[in-house]
Amino acid sequence: MSATLAIETPETVREQVIAWRRYLHQHPEVSFHERETSQFVADTLAAFGGLEISRPTPTSVMARLAGGAGPGPVLALRADIDALPILEANSHDFASTSPGVMHACGHDGHTSMMLGAVKILVSRRAELRGEVRVLFQHAEELYPGGASQMVDAGALDGVQMILGAHLWLSLPFGQVGVKTGPLMAALNTFRVTIEGTGGHAAIPQQTIDPIVTAAQVVTNLQHVVARNVDPLASAVISVTQINGGTTTNVIPGAVELSGTVRTFDPTLRARIPVLMERVIAGVTAAHGATYTWTFEPGYAAVHNDATANDLVRRAVTRALGAEVLVEATPTMGAEDFSAYQQATPGAFFFIGARNEERGIVHPHHHERFDLDERALDYGTRIFVAAALEHLGGDHAG
After folding, report:
1. Which of 185, 318, 367, 384 could disulfide-link 262, Cβ–Cβ 3.0 to 4.6 Å?
2. pLDDT tens digit string along 254-276?
3. Active site members
4. Residue 27: φ, ψ to 5°
5. Which pLDDT band, with edges at 50, 70 and 90, does 2 fall under?
6. 298-313, pLDDT tens digit by residue?
7. Going by C-beta distance under 8 Å and a sequence separation of 6 or more, which residues neighbour residue 287?
8. Which candidate, 123, 109, 156, places its Cα nearest to that of 380?
């Protein structure tokens, strides 16, 4: 690399980061199909120079930046790149051009602000010891998720710490939420089939009604949390689908229920399905019905390592000032960033992107989701500061 390479700054990349975000927003791709997105990322990184670029999976990208100041630790930074199967309702001039697919969770922003950070770090590699390894990860939105596949592909080999962030609509622009310990919940899904005996709706006494039984199961599953879980613990059981019946005058033979369970504590996560099946078995037996069910563990809880989270706090203070730091409120939402934390210490944090005055208030996964694009500059600055804090000067080691 040329010794005369101009030093990039957040100011010099700010407009490019916004342009990248808008391009990506116009061209979204769903999980495990991010072919054009990953190629765009790889081509953009290649134009920076000085990076070792690889493809750990067919639709992900990894960039390795070796510091110019000698050996040191390996710090990984992660951005997710996938979109959602949602028809966008926004009318701005960079709305999705892919019908039924939308960046409704901010991953376009995650990708663009990370590209900005990499561009700056490439120009400042002489200040770094060790390695910055940047993961542009596919398929965060769809289990089993891209993070575990990246780990299996060796993306974290030799990494001592990993950081990631989410642009967050529950926080206003100007705040960055950080927290040591549990931040996002473990994800589990369940499916129950309740089998009765169908028949004519006018003669219910000749049937075993699975709809009535299913209604009781739904109601009583709420007692698992209300009466079996410590009120100071956190757990959610939500039945989100009920399927059964074909017409108004027929009691069906079976009904299917499905939903999700969210927890932070691993012990509670293991206990809840035992309690759920006790309820399902008891209610169905009381009505003379039978059941089959599956309980499928998904993403583990995001649990922030204290040392990694301290690095985030220092980076935010260095980049933006301590006044923007707030204590993040844990959420029952899930994130496959936890797969990285199971392999190496890591921290995940929230960057406020809400703007009430401009109507940027819709939640994640909403058809009108949007971002205050000033938050992209915050993300770029924080990731650059984290690398300089951890790998630069006296902080390396």
Report:
1. 185
2. 999 999 999 999 999 999 999 99
3. 82, 140
4. -125, 60
5. very low
6. 999 999 999 999 999 9
7. 196, 208, 209, 212, 213, 216
8. 109
Those residues with Cβ within 8 angstroms of residue 231's Cβ, 6 or more apart along the chain or in another chain: none
The full set of domain ranges for the chain reads 10-183+301-395, 186-297
Average pLDDT for the chain = 96
We find that the CATH architecture of domain 10-183+301-395 is 3-Layer(aba) Sandwich (3.40)
What count of residues does the chain have? 397
Same fold for the pair 10-183+301-395 and 186-297: no
Confidence of residue 5 (pLDDT cuts 50, 70, 90): low
Provide the residue type at 148 as one letter.
Answer: S
Q: Which of 379, 378, 377, 359 is nearest to 369 (CA)?
A: 359
Beta bridge partners of 75: 132, 161
Beta strands in the chain (DSSP E): 52-54, 61-66, 74-80, 131-137, 161-172, 176-178, 181-184, 186-195, 199-200, 235-243, 250-251, 254-263, 290-297, 302-304, 325-327, 346-354
Would you state the CATH architecture of domain 186-297?
A: 2-Layer Sandwich (3.30)
Give bridge partners of residue 134 from the DSSP assignment: 63, 77
pLDDT by residue (tens digit) across 157-175? 999 999 999 999 999 999 9
Q: Are strands 161-172 and 346-354 parallel, antiparallel or unpaired?
A: parallel
pLDDT digits (tens, 9 = 90+) for 95-107: 999 999 999 999 9
Beta bridge partners of 348: 164
SS3 per-residue string spanning 142-173: CCCCHHHHHHHCCCCCCCCEEEEEEEEEEEEC
